[in-house]
Amino acid sequence: MAEQQQQLTSEDIIQEENLVFDRTQLLTDNVFHYCPGCGHGVAHRLIMEVVEELEVQDKAIGIAPVGCSVLAYNYMDIDMQEAAHGRAPALATGIKRTMPDKYVFTYQGDGDLAAIGTAETIHACNRGENVAIFFINNGIYGMTGGQMAPTTLEKMKSSTTPYGRNIKQMGNPLKITELVAELPGTYYVTRQAVHKPGAVRKAKKAIKKAFEYQKLEKGLSFVEIVINCNSGWKMEPVDANKWMDENFLPYYPLGDIKVPEKK
Amino acid sequence: MAKLQGRIVVDTEKCKGCGVCIPACPFDVIALADNVNSKGFHYAYMKNPEACTGCVNCALVCPDAVIQVYRKKATA
Amino acid sequence: MGELKLMKGNEAIAEAAIRDGADGYFGYPITPQSEVIEYLAAQQPEERTGMVLLQAESELASINMIYGAAGSGKKVMTSSSSPGVSLKQEGISYIAGAELPCLVLNVVRGGPGLGTIQPSQSDYFQSTKGGGHGDYHLIVLAPASVQEMYDFVELGFDLAFKYRNPAMILSDGAIGQMMEKVEIGEQKPRMTEQQIKEKYPWATTGKTPDRERNIITSLELDSAKMEKFNEKLVEKYRTIKENEVRYEEIQCEDADYLLVAYGTSSRICEKTVEMARQEGIKLGLLRPITLFPFPSQRLAEYAQKVKGIMSVEMSSGQMVEDVKLAVESRVQVEHYGRMGGIVPSAEEVLQALKQKFL
Predict the structure, then answer these.
(1) Of A188, A191, C34, C81, which is most buried by a Cβ count within 10 Å?
(2) CA-CA-CA-CA torsion sign (A115, A230, B24, B60)
(3) ipTM, two decimals
(4) What CATH number should be reported for the domain whose range is B3-74?
(5) What is the DSSP letter of B50?
């Protein structure tokens, strides 16, 4: 039988010394402009938690994309640049090449990285730039109102595929993460998610590696983070995460795709 | 034997009531309030605070980083 | 007197970049300017000064590498020729919008489209009127010799950093390819990170506790704030127009007629002036060195004195519009141009002058 437990009051528990989770200081006080339930906020938070834990705020330079996260620099309390659509890996290259001791990362959506910026993505990966790419995949163009993205699944509806993506007409959903893993310039390639506590813990570890590996100068770290776009998918946030588990993740399975060789 | 007891503090003005924290909680602690904040969102609150262990799962998945978690060991 | 060297125009640009202490060159090959990156590659600037050299996957990528490095306060440049410069326009617009300094070289070839690889001056509009989307201007320098190709690298960088604005050297295939003697300057040191932090406090060098985070962006969603920013740019261009106009006057003092020409055309027009003078025609040449800002004021003064002005360009007539705007119909303005990569001869320019005015 369970022993009789002392039942603490809220006043007992809510004390400074008992605080076990707080918003990282490296997120600004600005309220995210993202839709309720959108995973961008979690991804932002994890990156800033890692920068805080590694104590590299004074060496971190981030590149925001064009897309929903175009204003990422409003939330991350580090030096940032805002790129033209798809060109973030080129900016990152320019920064890292001229300042090799910095921790440089791009934060890009699927339209930005896998459609208009495909060339910049592939070549930054292939050159083995010592930067991190955080690739947020929600299978849709969020900011412009839910149009088809290169990552939109077959038969998935969007505002430009209102009857579902027809592969014959629109081509196949692009697994660009698997593609860049084939390039010798990538050092670490992984696909993560942030919709469940366990996934968030793993995603943070992956983000941390992507920062730490920059010191090794062995190539580019590419971390895909799958998130829901509940507005674009036209679902409630919790339902969107469930739909993601059932439909999106089977096509884009989570886990490491390329890990550094152990010697 | 010690048991962990927790509490969460939600920044109710910044909470958007997305509800993602609710299924993340293993002990069914959280619900959305009937009340709304100034932006009209039904914010998250502890409907069942005694069940909270301070596991931080809700805070991990919170898209707006508006949950603080406190945890304390209760002795028998 | 510094060291003298026989160099191609494109090589002079490259050597000048190293000697001026540039931090990086990011480019993509295209005729007739590939010697810039080839010369740099042979020189191994990483070894000489630590200057970064990178051949990008495209003009788009190279101009955006410039954006990134310039945003961090680095002295960086790119070069291309007409079709490639068209591709760079997106990035140039963002760089102008983010108010970043950088240097872009255009060794112009004939167009439109793929056009020809022969020299042309048909990118005047693109260079001086903005080029990409939105209200902005580049500072545009027009070299007429290999020496000026060399000298304008330093001048271009200086102006770019002074005004936090992209600068362009608008050359052409003839000046890029021709060889002349060049006086080479001393090697200047590259700036240290500490110097950059002190001199360019806006640069993204990593947020330290003593300052707010730096954000490099061209985005402003609030219309009222965006208009304020546009007005700030307009004010900057007005200051540039006031302070940075450069031109050369050749036999203008007593001129009855005036040629206006830049770059390769101005070299030909110098000969035309000599020939005309031998025939008793009082001809002068005004050579704009800065195309933006344009020497409008000076031309307006000549409009009171001369009987006619002829703009000579290797284009269908682009700069002539600025000449007309400057003189406001107070004097007859004509255009003579050749296109398709053809360089006019001094004789045919003189012939054209006679036909139009005498």
Answers:
(1) C81
(2) positive
(3) 0.96
(4) 3.30.70.20
(5) G
Domain boundaries, chain B: 3-74
User: How many separate domains does chain A show?
Assistant: 1
Strand positions, DSSP E, B17-57: 30-32, 44-46
List, in order of start, the domains of chain C with CATH numbers.
Answer: 3-193 (3.40.50.970), 247-357 (3.40.50.920)
Kindly tell me the sign of the dihedral angle through the C-alpha atoms of A21, A27, A30, A33: negative
| Distance from C-alpha of C27 to C-alpha of C22, rounded to nearest angstrom | 14
Cβ proximity of A138 and A111 under 8 Å: no
Contacts of B20 in chain A (CB under 8 A): 37, 195, 237-238, 241
Q: Which range of residues forms the domain containing residue A161?
A: 34-258
User: What radius of gyration do chain B's Cα atoms show?
Assistant: 12
Tell me if A2 is assigned to some domain: no
H or E segment and range at residue C166: strand C166-172
pLDDT digits (tens, 9 = 90+) for B40-51: 999 999 999 999
Residue A158 falls inside a structural domain: yes
Kindly report the nearest CA distance between residue B22 and chain A, in angstroms.
Answer: 9
- CA dist., res. A227 & res. C101, Å (int): 37
User: C residues 213-272 near A, CB within 8 Å?
Assistant: 213-219
